[in-house]
Amino acid sequence: MASVQDIKRRVxxxxxxxxxxxxxxxxxxxxxxxxxxxxxxxxxxxDRMLELMAGTAxxxxxxxxxPLLQTREVETVAIIPITGDRGLAGAxxxxxxxxAFALERTLRxxxxxxxxxxxxxxxxxxxxxxxxxxxxxxxxLGDRPGYHDAQAVAHRLAELYVEGDVDRVVxxxxxxxxxxxxxxxxxDVLPISxxxxxxxxxxxxxRALRGDFIYEPEPEEILTRLLPVYLETELxxxxxxxxxxxxxxxxxxxxNASKSAGELxxxxxxxxxxxxxxEITQEIxxxxxxxxxxxx
Length: 296
Hints:
Blueprint (H helix, E strand, L loop, with lengths): L3 H56 L16 E6 L10 H18 L3 E7 L1 H9 L4 E5 L8 H16 L5 E11 L2 E10 L3 H6 L1 H8 L10 H77 L1
Parallel strand pairs: 1-2, 1-4, 2-3
Antiparallel strand pairs: 4-5
Helix pairs in contact: 1-6, 1-7, 4-7
């Protein structure tokens, strides 16, 4: 059995660890609130973007000349897992990579080639540890990814798609549901589906009742400029969802760690009391035995 002093030192160490986990939980909770506010602030912009694209597409005579809308036979697929730069977030990073590797196995089973691009240090280090060739990695985005980060990723993906290096682009990320629930989501971002242009038609029809629109320059040219912006917006939303999910996962993990530390402290305190009582009992027995020996 460990001595009382050993147990005291262990309890003191666990209490210090619990202070750290509680502090990390509070920091994650504060950052989560800010991340949720950023997601809510971005939604109206994304909705107006869809409406504008749908209205412009309806006014266009042809969409065949728009490279980001063109579909072709899929031979090479780009997979982009969005992970974090840090750990201590439970299964946040592991479940993203698990889904990405499962997708890769499915694609290779269908005879497709796979290119890896990754966001986050955790994903990049895991892929390189498994000896995958990483086309490009974006790290250091931090807890508050900016729109310029989404632009950098979008420009590279559009470049690969337009040049024919990849025929399909899939993003794997954690969609934020609640601090306790993060849903792994697989989203095709290129080619841009025609259904995207149809998704805002109801709002466009309602707005069209107020009057006709005159497009300057031509709708096709406007749409050529809007499609890359839409891609940037979708990637920015994915980055924000991933950041919020990471904060929620870290907050939950640190709360569970603090709870486990408290339970361990209670268990060790009970063991320490038993050890102290055993020491006292042993001392009393020694005193009694010594007194009996003197009287004998």
